[in-house]
Each structure stands twice: as C-alpha cells, then as structure tokens.
Amino acid sequence: MPPKTIEEPARQIPLYGEYEVAVLGGGPAGIAASVAAARAGKRTLLIERYGFLGGMGTAAGVTNFCGLHANVHGEIRQVVHGVADELLARIDRLGGLNAPHMVFGKIAAQAYDTAAYKCAADDLLLGQGVEILFHALGAGVVMDIDETVRALIVETKSGRAAVIGRMFIDCSGDGDLAAWAGAPFELGDGAGSMLYPTMMFRVNGVDPAAAGEAWKTIPALMDEATRRGETFPRKGARTQPNGASTSPR
Ligand SMILES: Cc1cc2nc3c(=O)[nH]c(=O)nc-3n(C[C@H](O)[C@H](O)[C@H](O)COP(=O)(O)OP(=O)(O)OC[C@H]3O[C@@H](n4cnc5c(N)ncnc54)[C@H](O)[C@@H]3O)c2cc1C
User: Fold this and answer.
1) What pLDDT is attached to residue 234?
2) What atom in ligand 1 is closest to the CA of residue 53?
3) How confident is the model over 214-224, as a mean pLDDT?
C-alpha cells in the first residue's frame, strides 16, 4: 500500500505583517468588518484569495442585494444602513446601481453592476486606510498556548507567509479560520445533504419590457417540464435587472 500522507519538514516562513485586526475574506461581511475596524482606529488588513472584493456578490455573479429591505407592517423599506449605504452610494456614483425591484412579489432587492461594486468597495476600504492583501489564500493558523489565534498562514504567488494579529475576524463565508482554530461546526443536515446549488448567469441584450415578469413565467415553464418528467435540483428561477446603466431606474 502506498503511504497516504507525507511529512512536511518544519520551516521558517516570512512575516507579512502585524495588525490589530486581520479580516479573512473580502465579501460583504469582510468589507463591513474591515471598515468598522479601521474606523475604530485599528490597523487593519483584509486578506482575499481573489483579486477583487465583493465575495459571492461579485465572484459568483449574484448581482443584487437582497436583505437590505424588509416588510415593516406592510411597507417595504430599506432597514439595513451604515456601511451598506456608503457602498451603495459609491456604486451609484459609478452608474452601477438600479432602483430596488420586487423579488417573488414579496420583497425588494437592489441590482448592481459587479465591476462597479468591485471599484466602489476598493474605494471604500482604501479611503478608510484598510490594507488589502489580494491573491492570498488563507491556509491555516498558528495557535498560541492560550488557544487564541496567533497568526494566519497565507499562500501567495510569492510563497507562504504569516500575518500576526491581535484580533482575527473570519469572513470567509465558509468558517475556514474558525475551523482551523478548532471551533466546532456541523455540515448541512449531518446526513450528507448540503444547501442546494444555485447557478447564476447573465444574459445580455434582453428587452426588459418583452421579458416581462420572467420570475413568474420561468417557474411556470419549469412546473410544466416537471409534469413531463424533467427533474431540477431547485425550482423557482429568479431574474433581476442588471447592467444598471441600461436598465430602467
Ligand atoms: C449562487 C448564489 C446566489 C445568491 N443569491 C443571492 C441574491 O440573489 N441576493 C443576495 O442578497 N444574496 C444572495 N446570495 C447570498 C450572498 O451572496 C451571501 O449572503 C453573501 O455573499 C455572504 O457574504 P460573506 O461576506 O459572508 O461571504 P462571501 O460573499 O462568500 O465572501 C467570502 C469571501 O472570502 C473569500 N475567501 C473564502 N475563503 C478564503 C480563504 N481561505 N482565503 C482567502 N479568502 C477566502 C472568498 O473569496 C470571498 O471573497 C447568493 C449566494 C450564492 C452563492
């Protein structure tokens, strides 16, 4: 039987830097956390594996904020503000923000252009003095004897390095840092089922008037296909106006 593991020799690795706050992940959570930390006067570093901010909102083509609004006694209004407003204003200034639209006829979501989101988030963080380390994959932690995280290990094109922090915030969306630090976690329903997958894709050159209420017609077509014997991992397609500069506001 060939061996299943190999011993990696211990080695000294360079120190990238020492920070009061180190944030892993540059999605909406990481953006808000790092801006808040920098505003509190902390020397802050945000570490992101890709070369841009926005997390799934940009990398996975989510293209709308759903969750900023709520139905308050029958009135749909924006209830999340703070850093979100500052990000929205910057995206809007770049011409990349649509007026809120209704989703499933129930709640408002606000569509944006992903390139504008990336630029707006850069501007927001750099304006607050947050340092950003792009193209760096968090790969593990070094623990202190008191079971606190002493350093985050990152893999970059320049090699492996360590970020020392007084406080670490896990905004990886996957709980990577927390898991490396030994925090307990559960996966899905514990019986192998995880969150269902969603495929986001973008269609250009659509006449929004002719497309109409596609969020109603597409699910109806899917129901029809199901009756014919087709199967889908998820029912209920959603559509949202994107490319803010060409969509009606
Ligand atoms: C397909 C899909 C459709 C969705 N639809 C909607 C929608 O229509 N409207 C809506 O509002 N929300 C939607 N969501 C949910 C929304 O995207 C998430 O709630 C939101 O992105 C969570 O933000 P986050 O910052 O916690 O994590 P994420 O957005 O996941 O950001 C995590 C960041 O951490 C980085 N990262 C992860 N691990 C590491 C590591 N080890 N080292 C370095 N960097 C790392 C990632 O690259 C990413 O940039 C959707 C999500 C998906 C995936």
Assistant:
1) 74
2) 49
3) 85
